[in-house]
C-alpha cells in the first residue's frame, strides 16, 4: 500500500499571510510517496517532531524525488524513461517537507486500519498533527503547505491571531494560466523570514506599511473576478515584496524576476516569486501561455519551465493499478 501527498505552490499572500492576510495555495501533481511496510531510509526533522509529540509511532520509507528539478544526466548516467538519461538535481521549493510529513502520518494512520466503508483516515486530525509538528520543526510558519498536502485543490487560507489556520476551497478566475519556472538559485525560507523579522524590529513602520500593501494585494486576489484583476492584484503584491526585500536585505524578488516582470507585463501577465521568494520557483500568471520571447528571456535568466498542474488531490492511497508517479 502506497500513500502519496502533493507538493504546493503559493500563488498569492506570501509573507502577508503571517499578518492575517488571506493566502492562495495550490496543490500540484508532484507527489511524495510513502510506504508504511518499508523501513525508513531517512527521517526528517518534521517527522521527528511528530514522533516526539506522540502523533506518530515511527518513520516510514518515502520517495520525494518527484519534488526535485531534473536535468540531463552526465555522460554514463543512469538511463530514464524512453532511454533519456536524467537525474534528480536539486530540491524545488514546493513544500517537500510538509508533503513528506503528511504522507507519513497518513500512511501510518491507514495502516492502523479503518472500518469497511469508512474514510482511510481523519483528514482534520492529520492536518492538526502535521501543522503542529511542521511548526515545531521549523520554528513557526503559516502552515499553508501542510493544508495543501492534506486537502489538495486550490485553497484560500487565513491565519487567526491564535495560530489556527483556516483553509477553504477557492475557485480561481476562469481562463487563468499559471506556468511554473525554476532556477538553480535558492534561499532558505527561514533565513528570509529572519531578515524580514529583523526589519520589523529595526523599522517597524516601514515593515508595517510594506506588508500592509502586500496584504491589500492578497485580499484583492481573493476577490478577483477575472484574469486582469488577478494579475493586477499579484503585481501589487510583488511591488510590495520587492520593496520589502530591498529594505530587509532579503532577495525576495531577484534581479532575474524583475527583468522577467517587464517582459510578462507586455503580455498582460505577471511574473512573481512563489512563496518566500529567493529565485528558486517563480510563476507566470496571465490569460494565455507565455510567448516564445518570454520563454527565451527566462532561459537567458537560467529559469526553466517545470511542467506541473495545479489543483491536485490531497493525500490519498495510490491506486495499485496505476504507476507510482501517475
Automatic annotation (TrEMBL):
EC number in record: 2.7.4.2
Any Pfam family hit: GHMP_kinases_N
Domain GHMP kinase N-terminal per the UniProt entry, residue ranges: 86-153
GO MF term (any one): ATP binding
Pathway: Isoprenoid biosynthesis; isopentenyl diphosphate biosynthesis via mevalonate pathway; isopentenyl diphosphate from (R)-mevalonate: step 1/3
The keyword Magnesium belongs to this UniProt entry's keyword annotation: yes
InterPro entries recorded: GHMP_kinase_C_sf, GHMP_kinase_N_dom, Mev_gal_kin, Ribosomal_Su5_D2-typ_SF, Ribsml_uS5_D2-typ_fold_subgr
Enzyme class, UniProt record, top EC level: transferase
Segments traversing the membrane: none
Protein name: Phosphomevalonate kinase
Swiss-Prot/TrEMBL keywords: ATP-binding, Cytoplasm, Kinase, Lipid biosynthesis, Lipid metabolism, Magnesium, Nucleotide-binding, Transferase
GO CC aspect terms: cytoplasm
Origin superkingdom: Bacteria
Any one Gene Ontology BP term: isopentenyl diphosphate biosynthetic process, mevalonate pathway
Chain's gene name: mvaK2
Amino acid at each position: 500500500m502506497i500513500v502519496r501527498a502533493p507538493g504546493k505552490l503559493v500563488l498569492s499572500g506570501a509573507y502577508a499571510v503571517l499578518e492575517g492576510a488571506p493566502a492562495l495555495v495550490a496543490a500540484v501533481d508532484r507527489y511524495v510517496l510513502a510506504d508504511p511496510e518499508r523501513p525508513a531510509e531517512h527521517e526528517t526533522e518534521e517527522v521527528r517532531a511528530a514522533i516526539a509529540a506522540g502523533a506518530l509511532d515511527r518513520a516510514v520509507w518515502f520517495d520525494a524525488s518527484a519534488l526535485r528539478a531534473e536535468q540531463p544526466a552526465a555522460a554514463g548516467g543512469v538511463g530514464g524513461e524512453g532511454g533519456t538519461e536524467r537525474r534528480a538535481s536539486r530540491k524545488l521549493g514546493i513544500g517537500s517537507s510538509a508533503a513528506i510529513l503528511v504522507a507519513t502520518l497518513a500512511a501510518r494512520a491507514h495502516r492502523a486500519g479503518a472500518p469497511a466503508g469508512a474514510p482511510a483516515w481523519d483528514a482534520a486530525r492529520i492536518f492538526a498533527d502535521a501543522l503542529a509538528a511542521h511548526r515545531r520543526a521549523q520554528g513557526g510558519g503559516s502552515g499553508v503547505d501542510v493544508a495543501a498536502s492534506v486537502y489538495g485543490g486550490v485553497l484560500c487560507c487565513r491565519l487567526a491571531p491564535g495560530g489556527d489556520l483556516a483553509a477553504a476551497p477557492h475557485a480561481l478566475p476562469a481562463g487563468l494560466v499559471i506556468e511554473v519556472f525554476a532556477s538553480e538559485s535558492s534561499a532558505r525560507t527561514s533565513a528570509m523570514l529572519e531578515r524580514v523579522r529583523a526589519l520589523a524590529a529595526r523599522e517597524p513602520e516601514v515593515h508595517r506599511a510594506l506588508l500592509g500593501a502586500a496584504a491589500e494585494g492578497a485580499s484583492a486576489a481573493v476577490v478577483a473576478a477575472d484574469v486582469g484583476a488577478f494579475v493586477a492584484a499579484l503585481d501589487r503584491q510583488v511591488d510590495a515584496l520587492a520593496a520589502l526585500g530591498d529594505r530587509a536585505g532579503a532577495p525576495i524578488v531577484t534581479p532575474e524576476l524583475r527583468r522577467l516582470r517587464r517582459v510578462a507585463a507586455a503580455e498582460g501577465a505577471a511574473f512573481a516569486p512563489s512563496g518566500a521568494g529567493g529565485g528558486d520557483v517563480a510563476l507566470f500568471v496571465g490569460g494565455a501561455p507565455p510567448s516564445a520571447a518570454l520563454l527565451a528571456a527566462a532561459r537567458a535568466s537560467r529559469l526553466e519551465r517545470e511542467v506541473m498542474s495545479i489543483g491536485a488531490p490531497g493525500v490519498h492511497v495510490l491506486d495499485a493499478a496505476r504507476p507510482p508517479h501517475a
